[in-house]
Amino acid sequence: MTPTQAPVTSGAGPSGPRLEMTITPGVSFPDWSVVTSQTVRETLDSIFEVMGVEELWSGLGDAEDRVRRAILDYYAEAGRAPSLPRLAEITRFGPGELRALLEKLEARDMVVLDPRGETITGAYPFTERDTGHQVRLGDRVLNAMCAIDALGVGAMYGKDASIESTCPACGAAIHIETRDHGAALAGFSPSGAVVWSGIQYFGGCAAESLCRVMAFFCSDAHLASWRNANHPDGKGFRLSMYEGLQAGKAIFTPMLAAPSTKECCHE
Q1: Domains of the chain by residue range
Q2: Which residue blocks in 52-163 are alpha helix, DSSP H?
Q3: How many CB atoms lie within 10 A of CB 98?
Q4: What is the pLDDT tens value at each position of the chain, 267 positions in all?
Q5: What CATH number does the domain located at 127-253 have?
Q6: Pairing with 263, which of 76, 134, 163, 238 sits 20 to 30 Å away (CA)?
Q7: What is the C-alpha separation between 87 and 93, in angstroms, rounded?
Q8: Which of the 8 DSSP states describes residue 253?
């Protein structure tokens, strides 16, 4: 595999060209093919713009990508982040080289480390802290960074997942089930539940900014009351649960997609 190609734009929409990047041979980010909603397109455009995603992903090399994928694979297997010694065993990088690669991934906002850089505390879409968004994947229960991250987990691994969350306005339980290997909704309750995708980014860390304003709500009325009290002037998008799933799939389906044999193995 060669280092990530430079970002390209394609599929110009009403707001201009949409970001599309090759993150591994034959795999594009985001996966616009799963997006049918104009609101989701605008949501993703806003997220990518505020985060500077083009710069964060540009030039990602083989070694960094190997570590990134290994962390996400381990989350699914163990339900938690790997320790640095365990990650070194998996990736076969020495401690010094691994630490340097993790620092690069942290600078790209692809992993989150503790202040001393000795522990992995998150790798999107997962975190070690309790966010109130729990995803059951097989017999593992993992903490998702936010609502959209939670909705993208099943599609990223190609497995059905269930999500348990609560409405920030009233504490009501929200339950979501996916089917078709995480690609579709099997059902959710309450029936009026929606997704709020706030738009804010600072400190070079989505976990501490963007993810703090992305949540499930039991109803539009409770979303409105929460916004009035907590985010009155903040930009964001109200998404149906189906639109939230589209956003999650568009972001996370490419994250562990296998590179194209045709592109990566030719002479």
Answers
A1: 127-253
A2: 53-57, 62-78, 84-91, 95-107, 147-157
A3: 19
A4: 333 333 333 334 444 558 998 888 888 999 999 999 999 999 999 999 999 999 999 999 999 999 999 999 999 999 999 999 999 999 999 999 999 999 999 999 999 999 999 999 999 999 999 999 999 999 999 999 999 999 999 999 999 999 999 999 999 999 999 999 999 999 999 999 999 999 999 999 999 999 999 999 999 999 999 999 998 888 999 999 999 999 999 999 999 998 865 544 443
A5: 3.30.450.410
A6: 76
A7: 8
A8: G
